[in-house]
Write a sequence for this structure.
């Protein structure tokens, strides 16, 4: 059973740091041995690591109505909250649902607040889950060039879903400099500077994850993670 571990930050103290100290990843408990050995990889990276290409990869790379297991043994999550018909109603930038799945499949996602993490846990039904908390400033120090933030949960397209497109993923450097300016459509006012990011996404993978971990904790279906 996984336990807690820790690491020390290599980033200088930043009293005006505008993001939380920790980023939170919810993982399927079955994936923990692989995560310990290989770090976190996006769905697209996991498909490639499993040796799947073309037609063999397609069932895993397009809409997944249920969680699926790759030939490597890795479990990848369902995408039930963003079915194609719901996505079509909220996508712009001339994106198709298939484009959106490709876009999100290339990223590793972290929650930036406890409430969103716990809502995600509740949506996983009975499958055993694991919360992995990492030092966010160290994560950014090592992988900030591939990092972006989002203003809402981009994995949910139901219930008055927000419009979304490529601009929804705001490069972290751009967000730190000008908050949501690059997300704003021409002619529209930007989101308030006080609007907090919902997620942080890293393109590709975080292979050195275990060097960033500050807490690892299994969480029961009816439990609440409090940090």
């Amino acid at each position: 059973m996984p336990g807690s571990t820790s690491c020390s930050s290599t980033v200088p103290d930043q009293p005006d740091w505008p993001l939380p100290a920790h980023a939170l990843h919810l993982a399927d408990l079955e994936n923990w041995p692989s995560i310990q050995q290989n770090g976190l990889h996006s769905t697209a990276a996991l498909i490639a690591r499993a040796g799947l290409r073309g037609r063999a990869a397609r069932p895993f790379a397009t809409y997944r109505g249920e969680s699926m297991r790759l030939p490597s043994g890795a479990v990848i999550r369902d995408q039930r909250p963003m079915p194609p018909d719901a996505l079509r109603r909220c996508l712009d930038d001339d994106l198709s649902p298939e484009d959106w799945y490709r876009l999100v499949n290339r990223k590793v996602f972290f929650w930036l607040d406890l409430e969103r993490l716990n809502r995600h846990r509740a949506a996983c039904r009975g499958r055993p889950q694991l919360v992995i908390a990492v030092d966010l400033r160290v994560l950014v120090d090592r992988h900030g060039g591939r990092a972006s933030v989002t203003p809402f949960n981009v994995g949910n397209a139901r219930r008055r879903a927000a419009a979304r497109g490529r601009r929804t993923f705001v490069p972290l450097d751009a967000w730190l400099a000008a908050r949501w300016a690059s997300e704003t459509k021409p002619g529209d006012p930007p989101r308030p500077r006080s609007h907090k990011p919902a997620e942080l996404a890293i393109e590709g993978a975080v292979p050195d994850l275990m060097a960033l971990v500050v807490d690892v904790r299994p969480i029961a279906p009816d439990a609440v993670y409090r940090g």
Q: What stands out?
A: DSSP finds eight helices and eleven strands in the chain. Helices lie at 32-38, 43-49, 54-61, 84-88, 97-105, 114-123, 136-143, 172-178. Residues 22-219 form one domain. The chain has one domain: 22-219.
